[in-house]
Structure formats: structure tokens, C-alpha cells
Design goal:
The structure holds two protein chains of two kinds. By secondary structure, chain A is α/β, with parallel strands linked by helices. Chain A is 33% helix and 17% strand. Chain A has a seven-stranded mixed beta sheet with strand order 4-3-2-1-5-6-7. Chain A starts with 6 loop residues before the first strand and ends with a helix. By secondary structure, chain B is of the alpha/beta class. In chain B, the strands form five sheets. Chain B has a five-stranded parallel beta sheet with strand order 5-4-3-6-7, with helices on both faces. A four-stranded parallel beta sheet of chain B has the order 11-10-9-12. In chain B, helix 13 runs parallel beside helix 15 and helix 13 packs parallel to helix 16. Chain B is built from 16 helices and 18 strands. The chains are: A alpha/beta, B alpha/beta. Chains A and B meet through helix 4, helix 6, helix 7 and helix 8 of A and helix 2, helix 3, helix 5, strand 8 and helix 11 of B.
Chain lengths: 195, 464
């Protein structure tokens, strides 16, 4: 049972870069762990630290101006590798929501399976949100999963977002897919017999 | 109703449809490597579960393994632990393992097809985005995350939203020096890196039809690089010929029955796709990439194009990408000095790739400034290279064959391109730091790699 998801209001961490691939979210050399813990410290490793391990000034995670549990990223977030370590790193760092105008498929599933909510917004909403955060880093966003709405509290602009009813139910009740599949064992065996 | 190839296979595997939600899909074949599986096995242990259908999962370590001295313990203790964890998990849960030293060991996407474990009509998954490779056989094959690996281990099923369908038709005769890799890099550049996200792609047209199975695997392998959930090609005589007599392919009467079914696996004449796109094969020349995603590609004789002036947000990312590579708009890359050449990976690590490379370099000498890593995709490929005497041709030209594995494609082992150095690589991703922190990657096919390894600078293989 994971933490249940409902309404989240938070300041945001802006990353206005497009096509952020999962190799940037967590480079391959950090995939060697055999547990799910501790990936947050290497989130965006090569953008965040230099080769000697010193924080790179100017990268948003090193900038105390920005904080919060909502990551706002440019379009096509999470492209490339299927590594779930990327979603683990995002969750372990403390993000609960990722907002973008477009997500890569596998990464989007991986976020949902780790109780991180990917919120797809229009390009216009995203551009305005980046502007709001840039003008005031304390800009808050409200993500309401039951109502499927996202609101930029600086401008009052609101959009609805899509999520399939099954996944919404899982997130709101802290349920995962394996429990569901285990409850369907009889159907699976019946299907196998038919073949 | 007229159905697409994708629909036929998907629909034949639906166990349940959840209203307004994903499909519960039965999985015929599950491949497992050491990087994306340990947490899934731990999940089973925590829940007190066994593997539901152990005969359907095949394990092979490939990402972390060294490409020299595989008979000795792995130097890096963390890599060693991950590989040993896969061995322990396979043993504990009763799964087939082609471990280090096994004659069937190799990159999971190479060994599946060559052993007849990948067959037409299958649903195939693996915790690896290049699972799309197996679509070349007319299978629905796609990459999954570790939570989904656990689902498959626990129930032989997965919950997936049904993707939309796209058909990409390529027609026309390929020009000299153009390989399957060039077709794929051309398509990805036209589609962009996210252009097929949400879709499952069927490749069709006479150019595709005329490709060998290995060439088809190269094309399907790269489907994910335009965001596609997977890519597939309808099975035909080429497919059946390839599968026949492979170790795990059906035999005798079972084979005849299987082929009869496989012949039905094609899109109906009037099937409707959510999107349909056409390309002319005669437009394709040998390809290279210039940026930090596989969609940033050009013909080898072309100059780096300017970014789309309409796309304000995209311009920043484009500039960041060129800055990382040390290139500029308008620059031509032919003749650019190269440090490393990598032949291998699940994209271009099969026997035909080594034949193409060896045939090109035969009687020539490797340039002194080039460090070349030639890494077969599997031990079976390695043995075939030796059986055909390609290793001698390579050695005579100053090249050395390494041992099989994923190697420099993602540099989880020692095969790392140093910071600032640039590689021409037959692999699948040119992301920042993909081949080692600070490394720079130009993706290309085996012929561009061969020509470059001989000349020491980025070279068009047509200028022999």
C-alpha cells in the first residue's frame, strides 16, 4: 500500500528543456543497485554535479530559489530507455507530480507505477507556467486528481488532464497493478486452457 | 472487420479489458537482464510469490559484462553483484539462465531470435526499450519498466493501454552504401524523437519486404527512438526461413501448423491505421547524427540544419545539444576527426553487420588515431565470425574482436568513451554522456563506421 494521492498544492521546480531522456534523469552508471532506494541523490546527476562531484551552479536543483514537489519540464519528457530507475529517482528526490506538454510512453507508465503523477498540459499552459515561475519562483500550482484539474495559482488558469479511470483509482487508493493481476489468476488460467 | 497485424496479435492475447482502463494482456515470452530485474524479484519475495510461468522467462546478463576476460571475475564489485544477483534470482525462481560463460550468452535481443525463442505472433516483453527488435518477426514486442517485469513474473500478464496504430511504408530501391540502419535513422529524423509516441508502428512497403531478418531487426530495434511503443513487420517466407530449425522453434507437424497460422498474420487489405506515412527509399543516403537525440540526423553529405524558427522552446534545447557536441549550424561533418569507433549493440551487433564491416576493411589498415571496439552481440555471432574467418580479416587490418555484451552502447562496463572524445557508433542512442560521462556520439551504420575506422575521420563509405 502506497501513500494515497488526492490534491497537491506546491511550488514548482522548472526545467524548460525538451526531450529530457532517461539517461539524463539517471545515467546508466547509477543503475547497478539492486534495491529501489537512494536514486534521488543521482537525479539529473551530470547536469547537477561536475565530474568531481561538486554542484554545478545554475542547475535548477542546486538553486535554493526553487523548491517544491512539482517538477515542470519541457515537452517529450522521459524519452529513451525504459529504466524505471528514472521514476524511482524522481520519486526518491521528493517529486509527486511531473508537468509537461508531452511524455514518453514507457516513462509515463513507470511514473504512474511509482505513484508519481504525470500531468499532460497544453503547450500554452506550459509556456505560461514557465513564465509565472520565472517571474515569481514562489508560484504555486494545485493538482487535483479527483477533479483531474491543474491550476496555475499565479494566473488562476486551469486545465483538465487525462488519466484512465483505473490508474486514477489505483493512485487515489494506494493500490498497485500486481494486487489486481493476482486477483485475476483464474481468468489467466482459463485463458491459457482456451489456447 | 478489417484488422491490422498489430490488432490481430494484441486481440488474440487479451485476458480481460478493464472498463475505461488498460488491457490485461497475456505475454508469451519474457526476456530478463540484470539491470532492470533485481527489484522485481525482490518484490516477489516480499509478497511471498513464485514465478507464475517460469518456462516463459529467459535470463541473460548483458549490460554490465566486460568484453575482455569474461572467464575471470568482473572487476567492478557493483557490476559483479548485479550479475550475480541475476544468477541467484534465476536459480531461486527456477528460470532458464544463459549466464556468463554459457555458449548462448549475449545481448538478450540478439540471443532470443537466434535461438528461436522469438517467434511470429508472440507477445514479447523485457525491461528494456529495445525489445521492439523482436517485432521484426511479426510479434508485438515492447519495453517495460521494473514494476511491469514484476507483473509478468507474478502473473504472465501485463496491464497496458492499447496504443494507436501507425503504418510506415518505405518503397523503392536502396542506393549504394545504404544499410538498414540508415533507413531507420532517416525515418527517425523525419518523424522526430517523439513523433511516434503513443503508436505501435508497422513497417511495410517493398524496401522493407526486401530486407533480411537481421536488417528488419535493426529497423524495428530503433522504433523506440521516435517514441513508438514498438515496431513490427509482417512475417513472410524470409521470416519462416530464418526461424526454421532454430533450437526452440517448433518442429515437424508443429512447425507446419505454426507456419499456417503465421501466414494469417498480416494487415488486411482495407485495414485502417490511425496514421499512415510514406517514404521513398531512393531519398536515403548513408546517415549520421549530429545532436544528442537520434532524431537529430542528416545525410552524411549534408550540413547541420538550423532549428525550426517557429519553435521557441525547441531552439533552446537545440542550441544546448549543439553546444554539447561542439558543432554549429551549417557545419558539414564529413572529414571531422574521430577518436572511437564502436561496432556492436542490439542494433548492429549481428553477423551481417560484421560481414559488412569486414568486407569493407578487407586489405586496408585501421587509422592510428582510432580506438575501435568491435563487440559481437552474442557468443553465437562470435562463433560465426570465426567460422567465416572474418576475425582474420579484422586482425590483418589492425582490429581486435572483443567478447559479447552491450558494451559501449551504454558504457555500464569498462568500455567508456572518455570525456570530450567523439565516437562513431553503430548503437542506438547519442544522448549526452551515453557512452561515458562527457562523451560525444555520432550514430551511424556499420559501413560509415568501417569507412571512418580506416580514414580516421568521418567518412562516406561510398568514397572507397
Amino acid at each position: 500500500m502506497k501513500e494515497k494521492f488526492s490534491v497537491i498544492t506546491s511550488t514548482c521546480v522548472p526545467l524548460p528543456v525538451e526531450n529530457v531522456d532517461t539517461d539524463q534523469i539517471i545515467p546508466a552508471r547509477f543503475l547497478k543497485a539492486t534495491s529501489r532506494e537512494g536514486f534521488g541523490e543521482n537525479l539529473f546527476r551530470d547536469w547537477r554535479y561536475d565530474k568531481d562531484g561538486n554542484p554545478i551552479k545554475g542547475f535548477v536543483l542546486n538553486d535554493p530559489t526553487y523548491s517544491g514537489c512539482i517538477l515542470v519540464a519541457g515537452k517529450n519528457f522521459g524519452s529513451g530507455s525504459s529504466r524505471e530507475h528514472a521514476a524511482w529517482a524522481i520519486a526518491d528526490y521528493g517529486f509527486r507530480v511531473v508537468v509537461s506538454s508531452f511524455f514518453a510512453d514507457i516513462h509515463k507508465n513507470n511514473e504512474l507505477n511509482n505513484f508519481v503523477l504525470p500531468v499532460v498540459v497544453s503547450e500554452a499552459f506550459l509556456a505560461e507556467l514557465f513564465d509565472s515561475i520565472s517571474a515569481n519562483p514562489k508560484t504555486e500550482v494545485c493538482v487535483d486528481l479527483p477533479e483531474q484539474t491543474i491550476t496555475n495559482l499565479a494566473t488562476g488558469k486551469s486545465e483538465t488532464f487525462e488519466i484512465n479511470p483505473y490508474k486514477k483509482h489505483c493512485l487515489m487508493n494506494g493500490l498497485d497493478d500486481i494486487e489486481f493481476l493476482l486477483s485475476k489468476k483464474n481468468d489467466i488460467e482459463a485463458w491459457e486452457l482456451k489456447k | 472487420m478489417a484488422n491490422t497485424l498489430f490488432d490481430k496479435i494484441w486481440d488474440a492475447h487479451v485476458v480481460n479489458s478493464i472498463e475505461g482502463g488498460p488491457t490485461q494482456l497475456y505475454i508469451d515470452r519474457h526476456y530478463c537482464h540484470e539491470v532492470t530485474s533485481p527489484q522485481a524479484f525482490d518484490g516477489l519475495r516480499q509478497r511471498g510469490l513464485s514465478v507464475f510461468r517460469p518456462g516463459k522467462t529467459i535470463c541473460s546478463p548483458d549490460h554490465n559484462i566486460p568484453t575482455m576476460n569474461q572467464d575471470k571475475p568482473i572487476n567492478d564489485p557493483v557490476s559483479r553483484n548485479q550479475v550475480e544477483t541475476l544468477t541467484r534470482n534465476a536459480n531461486d525462481f527456477g528460470l532458464t539462465l544463459y549466464g556468463l560463460g554459457h555458449k548462448k550468452n549475449g545481448i538478450i535481443h540478439v540471443i532470443g531470435p537466434e535461438n528461436g525463442l522469438t517467434l511470429p505472433g508472440y507477445t514479447i516483453v523485457c525491461g528494456d526499450s529495445h525489445t521492439s527488435t523482436h517485432g521484426a518477426f511479426g510479434a508485438v514486442a515492447f519495453g517495460i519498466g521494473t514494476s511491469e517485469v514484476e507483473m509478468v513474473l507474478a502473473s504472465q500478464c501485463i496491464l497496458q493501454p492499447k496504443p494507436k496504430t501507425m503504418r510506415i511504408n518505405v518503397n523503392g530501391k536502396l542506393r549504394e552504401g545504404v544499410t538498414a540502419k540508415d533507413i531507420a535513422l532517416y525515418i527517425i529524423a523525419k518523424m522526430t524523437t517523439g513523433g511516434a509516441t503513443g503508436y505501435f508502428v508497422e513497417y511495410a512497403g517493398d524496401t522493407i519486404r526486401n530486407l533480411s531478418m537481421e536488417e528488419r531487426m535493426t529497423v524495428c530495434n530503433l522504433s523506440i527512438e521516435m517514441g513508438a511503443r514498438g515496431g513490427m513487420i509482417a512475417p513472410d517466407e524470409t521470416t519462416f526461413e530464418y526461424c526454421k530449425d532454430r533450437e526452440f522453434a517448433p518442429k515437424g507437424e508443429e512447425w507446419e501448423k505454426a507456419v499456417a497460422y503465421w501466414r494469417t498474420l498480416k494487415s488486411d487489405d482495407n485495414a485502417v491505421f490511425d496514421k499512415e506515412i510514406n517514404f521513398d527509399a531512393t531519398d536515403i543516403e548513408p546517415r549520421i547524427t549530429f545532436g544528442t537525440n537520434p532524431g537529430m540526423g542528416i545525410g552524411i553529405t549534408e550540413a547541420i540544419p538550423a532549428p525550426d524558427p517557429e519553435d521557441e522552446a525547441g531552439k533552446i534545447s537545440y542550441a544546448k545539444s549543439l553546444e554539447y557536441m561542439g558543432f554549429e549550424v551549417g557545419q558539414k561533418l564529413e572529414g571531422y576527426p574521430i577518436d572511437y569507433v564502436f561496432l556492436g549493440s542490439c542494433t548492429n551487433g549481428r553477423i551481417e553487420d560484421f560481414r559488412a564491416f569486414a568486407n569493407f576493411i578487407k586489405g586496408k589498415k585501421k587509422a592510428d588515431n582510432i580506438t575501435a571496439w568491435l563487440v559481437p552481440g552474442s557468443w553465437m555471432v562470435n562463433d560465426q565470425i570465426k567460422a567465416e574467418g572474418l576475425d582474420k580479416i579484422l586482425e590483418d587490418a589492425g582490429f581486435e574482436l572483443r567478447q559479447p555484451g552491450c558494451s559501449a552502447c551504454l558504457a555500464m562496463n569498462e568500455d567508456k568513451v572518455p570525456a570530450g572524445k567523439i565516437a562513431v557508433s553503430t548503437s542506438n542512442r547519442n544522448f549526452e554522456g551515453r557512452q561515458g560521462p562527457g562523451s560525444r556520439t555520432i550514430l551511424a551504420g556499420p559501413l560509415v563506421a568501417a569507412a571512418t575506422a580506416i580514414a580516421g575521420v568521418l567518412t562516406d563509405p561510398r568514397n572507397k
